[in-house]
Design brief:
The protein is α/β, with parallel strands linked by helices and about 400 residues long. Helix content is about 45%, strand content about 15%. It has a seven-stranded mixed β-sheet, with helices on both faces. Helix 2 runs antiparallel to helix 12, helix 5 (about 110-120) runs parallel beside helix 6 and helix 13 (about 300-320) packs parallel to helix 15. The termini are far apart. It binds pyridoxal-5'-phosphate. Pyridoxal-5'-phosphate binds next to helix 5.
Length: about 400
Amino acid sequence: MQQALEQRLRESLEQFRADGVYKRFNYLDSPQAPRVQMEGRGEIIILSSNNYLGLSAVPEVIAGGHDALNRFGAGTASVRFICGTFTIHRELEQALAGLVGTEAALTFVSCWNANEALFATVLGPEDVVISDQLNHASIIDGIRLAKVIAKCETAVYQHGDLADLDAKLRAHADKRTRLIVTDGVFSMEGDIAPLPDLVALARKHDAVLTVDDSHATGVLGPTGRGTADHYGMVGEVDIITSTLGKALGGAAGGFIASSAATCDYLTQRARPGLFSNALPCTVAGSAHAAVRHLQQHPEMVTRLHENARYFREQLLGLGFRPLPGETPIVPVILGETAKAIRMSEMLLDEGVFVTGFGYPVVPQGQARVRCQVSAAHTRDDLDAALRAFATVGRRLDLV
Ligand SMILES: Cc1ncc(COP(=O)(O)O)c(C=O)c1O
């Protein structure tokens, strides 16, 4: 390695440590679950995973992965259009389209990858993409890529601000396609996009609405079909991107769900699909089993909502001020990044794993610990986590 680069990286790493923002991995030696075995620490309660339904360790989901591995082997050894598509990919895509209520779906190795594929492929120099200010990094980077590759225009509207979005849509009335994009559930805030108003604005301006439902698929709505299900609007979102790496088994993988023509066009032209291997069939198998399990057990979604409500109410009762909301993402704002990381370390010492997030993941001065509740948490798990919050909160003079 070139010495100057090595030196620069080492100095930055030292600075991260000095600033208290250095991240380290915590190694788990058991499946992802409400309680895990953490190397060097023993049993720990997890309160920061996206395993919203607890499906990552459900026997049917694990068996789905095993069956696919046995049937198809380790992988495609190719990109899909050359010789790399298995029937399990088609079955999964049909199941995903059925779940979220679109004509078709197309899988990718991650939702990050799906967001990189979407904008750069469907937009061109005559078009504009208008993005919520707090959208996920994968949307931001997907748009940056589209700006370079597709040469489309880009605009950002203030978070959830419909008047600002309306103004930006009017300002781009001359564009061939106006594509609005929003997270369904915002990952750092836990708030839900105002879908009825967004659909109305999209219709008014003849715009296309895209929702990234990564934190909503399997989570929102009475049957976990996502943000549209929450509002009773399944079928009204033009394009949905989402992940298989959270509620739907938690392995990896993502998808774009939309009209048959949109998915077909992406199959023809999206570079991640044309130049990179398909989703591993083990993941396709476990995700397919996860979708089936979700559809057979909607009571998991009800339990998730009950657990989220309980945890939020109890935190308030202890004197914490979590951001208000109705999703299983419950952020507690602390201010400085170092404070959030300190609290997260102290919680870990008390046996609870909750990650602290600081700048640049969230705006400067709004560092937080982000709790994420799962349907798999028992009341005992949640109560034990709440006791740890009370202990640490008192030590840090927060409550
Ligand atoms: C809104 C949103 N989109 C996309 C992603 C990326 O998903 P994946 O892990 O499948 O790349 C995430 C993950 O954190 C997310 O929260």
